[in-house]
Design a protein that fits this description.
The protein is of the alpha/beta class and 254 residues long. The protein has a single domain, classed as Nucleoside phosphorylase domain (Rossmann fold), CATH 3.40.50. It is built from five helices and ten strands. Strands 1, 2, 3, 4, 5, 6, 7, 8, 9 and 10 form a ten-stranded mixed sheet that branches. Helix 3 links the parallel strand 8 and strand 9. The longest helix has 29 residues. The radius of gyration is 17 Å and the shape is globular. It starts with a strand and ends with a helix. The structure holds hypoxanthine.
Length: 254
């Protein structure tokens, strides 16, 4: 196992990596800043800030293809990606961590979402990648087990993540519709990230961090500040979980 982490909002510091160095990785889609370092067991690990250093890239403008390609290039075979989400499921409360096993894609086609553009070149021809079970059961199991071992509680392993285009939040009617479709969580980044990882044969699991009730489910009006405050309040738990999961994963096949 060679695991990389893509840090979403609120997860900017890969505390689980020592002897870090910053690598500028060239890809056919642009340059990516990858932090490389050592896990507790001495194996290599990698980290990318999804929203760039200082969080300046909004979800609809993230260079997903470059990010995922760069992680494959440096040698990662598995990706754990954190993602702030709103919850549409009463049992997934703000502050909870959830491991989605499905997604529904409501992005609008403005994000390059495939490596396979037809014709010749990098992703040659026409390829339809299986997406029946997009997320990685091994990583999901690992994170759930480690969470229980650490006393951080049971992480739900069945949840449907609805991905919206953003950067705006949803209307109350949209959330009602997504709930009727079976959505549990709503966020703006898992698609196309997971799709691209699957296209490159990488195992990918979202660690969803619930920051708020989705629009219309409570009185409060949604704000970015609220999302960031909940992430900050839970940052220690998130880091603790990632640190333990990455150490145990890297030991598992030594
Ligand atoms: N909607 C979409 N994305 C989000 C939300 C939300 O309510 N909270 C955090 N990211």
């Amino acid at each position: 196992m060679s695991i990389a982490v893509i840090g979403g909002s609120g997860v900017y510091d890969p505390a689980w990596l020592s002897q870090r160095l910053v690598r500028e990785v060239e890809t056919p889609y642009g340059q990516v800043e990858v932090i490389e370092g050592q896990l507790a067991t001495g194996r290599s690990g990698w980290f990318i800030n999804r929203h760039g250093v200082g969080h300046h890239v909004p979800p609809h403008q993230v260079n997903y293809r470059a990010n995922v390609y760069a992680l494959k290039e440096v040698g990662a075979t598995q990706i754990i990606a954190t993602a702030a989400v709103g919850s549409m499921n009463e049992s997934m409360v703000p502050g909870a961590m959830v491991l989605p096993d499905q997604f529904i894609d409501f992005t609008k086609g403005t994000r390059p979402a495939t490596y396979f553009e037809g014709g010749a070149g990098l992703g040659q021809g026409v390829v339809h990648t299986d997406m029946t079970c997009p997320f990685c059961p091994d990583l999901s199991r690992l994170l759930a087990t480690v969470s229980e071992e650490l006393g951080l509680g049971q992480l739900p392993k069945r949840a449907t993540y609805v991905c919206t285009e953003g950067p705006r939040f949803e209307t109350a009617a949209e959330i009602r519709a997504y709930r009727m479709m079976g959505g549990d969580l709503v966020g703006m980044t898992a698609v196309p990230e997971v799709v691209l990882a699957r296209e490159l044969g990488l195992c990918y699991q979202t660690l969803a961090l619930v920051t708020n009730w989705a629009a219309g489910l409570r009185e409060a009006i949604l704000g970015h500040e609220e999302v960031m405050a909940v992430l900050a309040a839970n940052a220690k738990r998130t880091t603790e979980l990632l640190m333990a999961a990455l150490s145990s994963a890297s030991m598992a096949d030594d």
